[in-house]
Amino acid sequence: MARSALTRDEVLETAASLVKQHGPGALTMRKLAAELGTAVTSIYWHVGNRESLLDALVERTVQQMGAIVPRTPSGGSSTAGRTPAERIVSVARILRRELRGRPHLIAMVHERGLTERMFLPAQQALVHEVHAAGLRGTRAADAVRAIQFQIVGFVLVERNRERSPAQSPAESELWDPAAAPDDPALARALARPADAERLFLLSVRALVHALLTPPAPPQ
């Protein structure tokens, strides 16, 4: 049965999927045409040459990252996500997830010098929330940047740990409870694999709390 008419969005969606899985080096017009079940000439008609296709993928990624808005946690109470702090944490979680979910596409955005533009909508969402929390001026700007740096830095550390070679000795060998009699519970905890999601939330919530808490009046 003949396939339905091909659309530009379908071409970009399939190309983005290939890049997510295998990186931009694996994206060829022939392979993309095979994935779509169409002729290479049809791909060219919709998106131009390969360089134009990569440019379109970058622009699409920038636009999708611009759709980041706070979300109310599912299953939470009716007031969940209604405070500036909770909405900031929501933005942080979404931004981390999006950065981790499309590393190759994010790298392409960075290589074309569009990183700051890509992060602008998330920054604007954070500005809205720190304003709602009562911060203004330099203090508000510092808070927004501190939160953004925390998110991006955490993602970079995660990727570095995931890509690093197997460690010998491993954490489980380094932290033997018997070798730490003063705090065996800590040794057992450090011997277990790190729960990245839990640590991310712990660090972001602590940072947000510190940033939004009014400074103590001078004595």
Topology of helices and strands:
Blueprint: H1 8-22, H2 29-36, H3 40-47, H4 50-65, H5 84-101, H6 103-111, H7 115-132, H8 137-163, H9 171-174, H10 184-191, H11 196-212
Helix pairs in contact: 2-3, 4-6, 4-7, 5-7, 5-8, 5-11, 7-8, 8-11
Provide a short characterization of the protein structure.
The protein has 219 residues and is mainly alpha-helical. It has helices spanning 8-22, 29-36, 40-47, 50-65, 84-101, 103-111, 115-132, 137-163, 171-174, 184-191, 196-212.
Number of helices: 11
* Helical proportion, percent range: 55-70%
Poorly predicted parts: 75-80
> What is the percentage of strand-forming residues?
under 5%
Task: Give the overall shape, derived from the CA principal axes.
Answer: flat
**Mean pLDDT, all residues:** 88
Class from secondary-structure proportions: mainly alpha
Keyphrases for this structure?
219 residues, mainly alpha, Arc Repressor Mutant, subunit A, 0% strand, flat
Written overview of the protein:
The protein folds into two domains: 8-65, Orthogonal Bundle (Arc Repressor Mutant, subunit A), CATH 1.10.10.60; 84-212. 68% of the residues lie in helices and 0% in strands. It contains eleven helices and no strands. It has helices spanning 8-22, 29-36, 40-47, 50-65, 84-101, 103-111, 115-132, 137-163, 171-174, 184-191, 196-212.
